[in-house]
Amino acid sequence: MGIKLPGRRVRKRLVALLLLLLSSSLFGQEMSVLPDILITGRVITLKIQTDFLYSENIEVGELELPDELSLISGPIVRPYRKRVDGKNQMFNQITWALRSKESGVYTIPNAEIYVKEKLYSVEVPLIKIFNNDERFNNYPLIVEWNKNIKKTIFVGESLPLVVEAYNLEEINFPDRVVTNNPRKGEIVEVSGLGDINPERVGEADLYRVPVASWIYTPFEAGMVTIPSVRVEINGLTRYTGSLEVEVLPVKDLNETGGVGEFLISTEISESQVTPEDMFHYKVRVSGQGNLPYFKFPEIKYDNLILIDKSENESISYTDNGYLGWREIDLTLQALDSGVKEIALSEVSWIDKNGSEIFYNGSISHLNVVSVKIVSEDIMPFLSFMKTPEIISSYRMFLYKNPLMWLFLGFSGLFYIIISLFKSIKKNRGKKGLLMTIAIMPLFLTSAIFAKGFEYQGELVAADKYIDSGDFESALVIYNDLSEKLPYNWGIFVNKSILWDKLDNVANSIYNIRLAERIAPTNSKIKQIKLYLSDSEESSQKQAKTSNGVNPDYIFIILLIFFNLLVLVLIRLLRVKSVTTYSMLFLTLLFSLLSVIMLIFIHSKNRVDAGIISQGGAPLTKVPNEMALDWMTLGEGNCVYIKGEWKDDYLIETEYGLQGWVSKDTILVLEER
User: Fold this and answer.
1) Is the pLDDT at 421 greater than 60, yes or no?
2) Which N-terminal stretch is annotated as signal sequence (predicted)?
3) Burial zone of 639 (CB within 10 Å; 0-12 exposed, 13-18 middle, 19+ buried)
4) Domains of the chain
5) Average pLDDT, the chain
6) Which of 153, 125, 141 is nearest to 44 (CA)?
7) Counting C-beta atoms within 10 Å of the first and last residue's C-beta, which end of the chain has fewer, N or C?
């Protein structure tokens, strides 16, 4: 049962509710923008038709307009007629008149209206102003310079310039870009600068896309004007404004003209040479900045002849300028013996903040001797192997000999033969079984005896060529023999020494690595490998292509424990005891461990690897002959081969550096 209110009170409450609804109805009102398509230079009208009666006094706040929009008139409050409940009534209408000389998408804060000291807020729609040639587009196309371009730089500093297109509904690139070169410097057109950035504009996802880029390097101080750029895209032609850049002078002490972050390093190919030897001295400048314009320090030397000079570089373009390295490679030869000095002069450059950076120079020493001096303790290992030594150096791992695996059944066969021996009564039959037991191991191990007697004539001829100093002829013989005797490590050792005599480091290391795969524990091979690596530190940075453990010992342990396992199993058939089961467990455990170790050693000896060939290998980040060189790996470096694509290998160094090199620059190590 409800409470009945007097009729007059009910009517008052209904009127109050109606007034409340009318006062808040403004929140449902929208501002309209006229005309439907807004064109640059033409009048833009913003209009709000309120539900407040014209008799009510209203106040309108000022619109906060962006700099690109100018206010012509407004806000203007005037009446407009509206029919309500069959009657014409007058309400308030508010209008503004705007104009813009530039196309674009603009946002304006909400309009504020005060009625009886109460604030009402009306959202202003997104203002999209088009040029005459794009009135059928959804959004105006804008082409501008990137807003992050530095406006103040130093003389010589490389300045990246990027032109971007705004308000693209799809990622499109220009049909044509036309520019004029600025004065007082050099400009280089590059690609890849800038990023594609998505932007939320109103309810749409649009893109800001770099459409053209350059790197400008000024040579004089003063104000520089970068001319306007014309861009043709999607059938439209747009122009950027000109760009003003202030170029500051630098100190006279900046001999290199460098502006950026740089590192200078030197490298000398040999520490000891004879007057007949040529060697390389390299100066490398690496870093980021105006790298192509960096002047190398002066190189000073006495009593050395310059045979050749070359320059190499690997430079890429970034949003901070040039990135990479440049290198001078001098081929020199000494006139006489003695200790020679090669000096690199002191220089300086500035960073991008104007701070001066000093390089104190460097001095490299070279020992020129009449005859190359090799440490006495390594001399015996660098001597050539003679014919008898080579014939006896034939080596095949036991586990690679199929006949040796028959020894796994030796204990079972021996048990059967002994059983037969006990059952045979005649002496002649017993003698036959004993002969079988004695001959069987000799037959099974016949495949591991030395091979190569049939090639003794060729080996002797190679010895004579070596004694006479005809290394090329000896190498021809050994190349042929290495195909016929792939498991003779002595042949590969002699080939390695021959290639070293012929100054081919890559092939020398390649052959000693093949020898190491055949005889991983041989001391002669280890010493030659260390000699070719120059130092223990350099050797540690090379890929590991051999386990360094002789798998024959592991295989013999496997044979012993497996045969013991067979005997224990035979005993288990007759005697079941704790001792027998313990022996079964131990023999089975050691047999499994031996198999696991053999598998590990075999996988290590089969790792895909190669040697960087003579001349080095340019390393790139992508497998493409057009890719920019990232760095160059020196000849003789041993690397892992992780994959391949067409004419390139994906390689990885022992210290984790990865990249792509051409297959022509890799000597692939074959399995032995």
Assistant:
1) no
2) 1-28
3) buried
4) 22-134 (2.60.40), 142-248 (2.60.40), 260-368 (2.60.40.680), 381-540 (1.25.40.10), 609-668 (2.30.30.40)
5) 79
6) 125
7) N
